[in-house]
UniProtKB/TrEMBL annotation:
Gene3D superfamilies assigned to the protein according to its UniProt record, in alphabetical order: P-loop containing nucleotide triphosphate hydrolases (3.40.50.300)
Chief place where the protein resides: Golgi
Compartments, as annotated in UniProt: Golgi apparatus membrane
Organism: Desmophyllum pertusum
GO molecular function ontology, one term from the record: sulfotransferase activity
Protein's UniProt name: Uncharacterized protein
Keywords, sorted A to Z: Glycoprotein, Golgi apparatus, Membrane, Signal-anchor, Transferase, Transmembrane, Transmembrane helix
């Protein structure tokens, strides 16, 4: 984003220009794969993304449940995740840079973003159900 000059864009400007950090349905397209329709047909891309997640991922996590995600990965993929810290507060995390400024996104802009990213929103809800089911099945609390 820095190289393209988008670093100082507002969310509205980035969204309208479809800047590098503001592409529509990024996660749906990622999980869909490399077929042409993954970029051009959100409905087909969503179906394929769901198929790929169900058929090709041993575990899937959610950032807002980071510690549970780590526990799930440890349980389902112990060779790759042999140890998970007992207390998430013991972990050092990159919390980002505080900009000391409050920026409010208008309700109208939020609605535009949600409409444009409807497939990502649906995919998130789908993944959330799978994640919670996997957590329960593994007896993780």
């Amino acid at each position: 984003m820095i190289e393209s000059g988008e670093i100082n864009d507002t969310i509205e400007q980035c969204f309208e220009k479809q800047g590098q950090g503001c592409k529509y349905n990024v996660m749906t397209r990622f999980f869909c794969g490399t077929e042409h329709f993954c970029k051009s047909d959100a409905q087909k891309a969503l179906v394929r993304a769901k198929e790929h997640i169900v058929n090709h991922y041993a575990a899937i996590g959610l950032l807002e449940h980071f510690h549970l995600t780590l526990k799930l990965l440890q349980r389902r993929l112990p060779y790759f995740f042999p140890v998970v810290p007992g207390d998430p507060s013991d972990m050092k995390v990159n919390e980002g840079v505080s900009r000391n400024q409050s920026y409010v996104v208008s309700d109208e802009m939020m609605d535009k973003i949600k409409r444009a990213n409807w497939a990502d929103i649906e995919l998130y809800e789908f993944v959330k159900q799978i994640f919670l089911r996997q957590v329960r099945a593994c007896g993780i609390s």
